[in-house]
Task: inverse folding
């Protein structure tokens, strides 16, 4: 029983004190909203995809024309999940997630274009599968719709990577 | 069971099946093969939706005798195919956001994904860039 309880009870009137004192426990921190966790996990997947595109664009600049439009779509996905970043610090968005995000499969620097595209395709497909599962789990229907769109988008990237 | 949303989808699939029947005839070998695959897949979805509606005790919307589609060239056929898939994607996304039932949502995400992939294939066939959109099923 902290001082907060006493103040509240006094405000509510002395007659309520015994009841308030019995029922008011220091509130535990509310459990995280499951939808927030889904949003955070999806944002983690988009960040991993962006990192993978950036890595491959550095190694194989010849793919720039092909990959940049796809990368731009992932940036839009991330923005839709997290909202605009705070002004002046585009990388400052915190991601307080309860569990570590699944990482994409590690791939060595790709020696060929075909390997690079196959590696990207694998990460896209894995993200599409996870977005799909999370779209089914989301309680908020708008979030479900967004995750479904992201799943469809990552799947359609296979056409551009083929 | 979201009967009204399923009916909207069934009506849309009827129109898409009809549209592919018309446009496929205007296409050359490779795109025509793609159109045939799409035609078969949309017929399956149509039948699946019909069955779901019957299970829900509803009367499935019948197909119209004909739809207003005019296709005079291969280019127009590609354009129509893309439009059909993009329109259908919106309906599937509406179903995702219109139901809490996991089996229906699962069906809807699959339908949305298929339409998004097909739309990208039609853009590729038509030489349209970019091949993809960031948020399939939104307008």
Result:
């Amino acid at each position: 029983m902290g001082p907060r309880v006493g103040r509240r009870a006094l405000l509510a009137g002395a007659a309520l004190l015994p009841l308030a004192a019995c029922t008011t426990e220091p509130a535990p921190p509310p459990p995280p909203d499951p939808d927030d966790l889904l949003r955070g996990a999806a944002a983690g997947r988009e960040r991993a995809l962006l990192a993978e595109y950036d890595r491959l664009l550095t190694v194989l600049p010849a793919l720039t024309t092909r990959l940049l439009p796809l990368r731009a779509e992932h940036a839009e996905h991330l923005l839709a999940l997290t909202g605009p970043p705070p002004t002046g610090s585009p990388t400052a968005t915190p991601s307080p997630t309860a569990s570590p995000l699944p990482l994409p499969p590690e791939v060595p620097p790709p020696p060929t274009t075909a390997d690079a595209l196959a590696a990207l395709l694998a990460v896209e497909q894995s993200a599409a599968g996870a977005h799909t599962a999370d779209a089914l789990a989301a309680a908020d229907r708008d979030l479900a719709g967004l995750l479904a769109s992201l799943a469809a988008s990552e799947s359609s990237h296979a056409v551009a990577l083929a | 069971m979201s009967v009204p949303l399923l009916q909207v989808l069934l009506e849309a699939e009827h129109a898409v099946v009809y549209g592919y029947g018309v446009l496929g005839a205007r296409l050359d070998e490779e795109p025509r093969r793609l159109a045939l695959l799409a035609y078969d897949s949309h017929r399956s979805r149509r039948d699946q939706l019909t069955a779901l509606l019957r299970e829900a005790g509803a009367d499935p919307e019948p197909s119209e005798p004909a739809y207003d589609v005019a296709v005079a060239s291969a280019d127009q056929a590609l354009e129509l195919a893309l439009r059909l898939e993009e329109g259908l994607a919106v309906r599937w996304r509406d179903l995702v956001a219109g139901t809490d039932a996991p089996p229906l949502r699962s069906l809807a995400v699959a339908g949305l994904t298929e339409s998004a992939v097909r739309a990208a294939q039609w853009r590729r066939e038509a030489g349209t860039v970019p091949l993809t959109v960031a948020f399939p099923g939104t307008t």
Summary: Chain B touches chain A through 31 residues (CB under 8 Å). The helical segments of chain B are 3-24, 29-55, 74-96, 102-126. Chain B has a mean pLDDT of 96. Chain B is about 70% helix and 0% strand.
